[in-house]
Amino acid sequence: MQAPNTPLPADMTQTVVLITGAAKRVGRVIAERFAQAGYAVVVHYGSSQQDALDTAQAIEAGGGVALLQQADLQDPQQLQAMIAATYARFGRLDVLVNCAAIFFPDTLVDFALDDLERSWQVNCRAPLLLTQAFYQQAQQRGQQGVVINVVDQKVRANFHPEDFSYTVAKAALGNLTAMLAMSSAPVLRVNALYPGLMTPSGDQTQADFEYSSARSTPLGYIAPVTEIADAILLLTRPSFNGAEFVVDAGQNLVRVDRDVINLYRAP
């Protein structure tokens, strides 16, 4: 885990990934998978400092390189600073994974304007601003890279009325994949991953999660988080650009009128 002011060699040739929300849950699994693949990992966190430290220590225990970066995803200046700090430390950035997200259990009828604004800022605006900053830094250096936006299978024609603020922002982000890929070429490639249910959410108990997992897809199981991480790593390959990759064990094929975390509860 690199200290904030510890310089790295100027001839750093190791590939580098920045993952938002990498301190815990799905973000940590993605971070550890990239470390296993040989990447230096920039572990972004908002307020989960101890979790971020744990993730960085786990990466380094496996022989990897980790750099902690705290940033408020609602603050555009902090986003610019995080990208700049990554380049200052490593001299490059190869992959940006926009994984962090916030979630509100609301509907059109009862959503709060503040929640809608926060969801837009974190779930859509932050990925756009980070992509812009990445593009600017890479272009100045004659480098190239790839952006992977983690979206949600529900915005692939499987809408329901719940999680309104979250869904509005994720739908916007997902529908920008082609535009972002065209706008940032040839400096950056931009792809989107659409997962389904991955980990316990909201007030789900472990029993609720297992019950829901067995009923949310045609196969009777959900895509493991490790396979989500593998899919993101796959999307970094040069032939993928403007790709929209659904990895959900078929959850998008099962039409629902409620979020599955509410629809399926353990008896």
From TrEMBL:
Gene3D superfamilies: NAD(P)-binding Rossmann-like Domain. It comes from the Bacteria. Pfam families: adh_short_C2. Keywords: Oxidoreductase. One of its GO terms (molecular function) is oxidoreductase activity. Belongs to the short-chain dehydrogenases/reductases (SDR) family. This is Short chain dehydrogenase family protein. It comes from Collimonas arenae.
